[in-house]
Design goal:
Mean pLDDT: 95
CATH architecture of one domain: 3-Layer(aba) Sandwich
Oligomer: single chain
CATH topology of one domain: Rossmann fold
Low-confidence stretches: none
Bound molecules: pyridoxal-5'-phosphate, zinc ion
Number of strands: 13
Helix content: 25-40%
Distance between the termini: 70 Å
Order of helices and strands: EEEHEHEHEHEHEHEHEHEHHHEHHEHHH
Strand content: 5-15%
Structural class: alpha/beta
């Protein structure tokens, strides 16, 4: 279908992210790329003609109407900032009731002044990860256009989220594609429990992603991966809630793990729009943290100097890099399965976001990830391995002096602690074989913060002695 012309009645539409192309498409079209040039799309609004609040604090009036589902949802109470669907079409399961909390334990570990490090715990979403923020938005769009089936490729959390929205709403069937590698049982069990049609292919996430695109287009199934621009609209609200929790003050740093780079891209869009609307006066800096075993963004941005350059990135740098990966048969490999991705679908949007937020990218080892995860756990939050990359990355940036100890830093904890108990138990185990089996092959050689179970005979005196010895 040809690009359409935006008219006055199109308060929301889709637009190619490449400024020199700028093709526009109706908000009701289902597409994940631009026909004219193949690039990703944004959801764009004619803000002038929309009822945008004068101040972010206007959203506080919604708190007194929490009996209304659209005010209770931590995504849809910001409906005015993602107004692509009419309220009556919104599908919500109460997502986005997530807390921002200061953590002095983690501040000490990262090397920040106390009171300056905050954790945004997106694991508290209904399906246990931040994915619900985006899924409610994509699902709502799918519903507005009358879709009956929705599909995704997933390292686990996207599928858990999609399966949840399908089974709660009964509006669509979920078709999920997973690889046969390291999906954690916590995530797989959700998809199975929620009744999703689960297609497990012999391959990894990057393979599953390619296949789900082909299958969706052949069978006309609605695709909810983060190439879907509506997903990212929902994920913007994570930043709105961060601001809300800080009394609408802008922090200095947002630190987030990078997988498919949907989150980082959406955060930048959120701040860009708020600034353009005059609702904030400055934009925080962004740090995207890769795992060392899946470090495409780090490699391209920090080592090879790939930049957005106003929409004219040097594609050759990217093509060369992917050709190198292919010829060396490199596959993504990290304990942080949610970010075990070598071909991030939102790469260009993320490059644009890094430009907008004066961003940096770092890579952290699985050892650093698991040690940081243990510190997050010991501080009472808990998260899955991928999430802890944000804390490990903040620590690295702090030790480099890029982050100043008195700045205000928000680390996003993307997924719940119980998503991947295997990694946690292996880290804390005293069984060297189990440790090596689960963790060792990824270069994790020690558990700096292990809390070992004490082995004791089933004997009262022995148990009492063990407790006295260890307390
Ligand atoms: C999906 C996911 C990520 C990666 O987020 P992107 O937006 O793909 O970069 C990180 N952590 C967890 C727990 C996830 O589920
Ligand atoms: Zn285009």
């Amino acid at each position: 279908m040809a690009a359409s012309v935006v008219t006055e009645k199109d308060l929301a539409y889709q637009q190619c992210i490449v400024p020199s192309c700028g093709a526009t498409y109706d908000v009701g079209e289902v597409r994940t790329s631009c026909d004219a040039c193949g690039a990703l799309l944004d959801v764009v609004y004619q803000w002038d003609a929309l009822p945008v609040p004068k101040s972010l604090s206007d959203f506080e009036t919604k708190w007194s109407r929490r009996n209304e589902p659209l005010c209770r949802s931590g995504v849809w109470r910001f409906h005015e900032l993602l107004p692509f669907a009419p309220p009556e079409k919104v599908v919500t399961v109460g997502e986005g009731q997530t807390p921002l909390s200061p953590s002095d334990g983690v501040a000490d570990y990262v090397g920040m002044s106390r009171g300056q490090l905050f954790l945004q715990y997106e694991g508290m979403n209904p399906s246990g990860s931040f994915k619900d923020n985006g899924m409610t938005a994509a699902f709502t769009h799918a519903h507005t256009i009358g879709a009956k089936r929705a599909a995704c490729a997933s390292t686990g959390n996207t599928s858990a989220s999609l399966a949840l929205y399908c089974c709660v709403s009964k509006l669509m069937q979920a078709v999920i594609f997973i690889g046969s590698g390291k999906i954690s049982y916590g995530k797989l069990s959700q998809a199975l429990d929620y009744g999703a049609l689960t297609i497990q292919i012999a391959g990894d996430f990057d393979d599953a992603m390619q296949r789900v695109r082909e299958v969706s287009s052949r069978l006309g199934i609605y695709l909810v991966n983060s190439v879907n621009p509506f997903r990212l609209e929902g994920q913007k609200t994570i930043m709105f809630r961060v601001l809300e929790s800080l009394g609408w003050e802008v922090p200095d740093w947002i630190v987030v793990p990078g997988g498919n780079l949907g989150n980082s891209s959406s955060f930048a869009k959120a701040f860009h729009e708020l600034k353009a609307l005059g609702l904030i006066d400055r934009v925080p800096r962004l740090a995207v943290i890769n795992a060392k075993g899946a470090d495409t963004l780090y490699e391209l941005y920090e080592s090879r100097g790939l930049r957005w350059r106003g929409g004219m990135p040097n594609i050759e740098v990217l093509d060369n890099y992917y050709a190198e990966l292919d010829s060396a048969h490199v596959r993504a490999d990290t304990i942080a399965s949610a970010i075990e991705i070598n071909r991030p679908v939102n790469l260009f949007k993320c490059l644009r976001g890094l430009e907008c937020m004066d961003g940096v990218v770092r890579e952290v080892t699985d050892q650093e990830i698991l040690d940081a995860k243990a510190q997050v756990g010991a501080s009472g939050f808990g998260c899955e391995p991928a999430s802890a990359a944000s804390v490990a990355g903040a620590r690295m940036l702090r030790s480099e002096g890029v982050i100043n100890p008195n700045e205000r830093v928000v680390c996003i904890l993307t997924g719940h602690q119980l998503k991947d108990p295997t990694a946690t138990v292996a880290y804390h185990t005293s069984d060297q074989k189990e440790f090596d089996r689960v963790l060792g092959s990824r270069g994790v050689s020690r558990a700096a913060f292990a809390n070992r179970a004490v082995q004791v005979d089933n004997d009262l005196d022995a148990i009492v002695r063990a407790i006295q010895l260890n307390s």
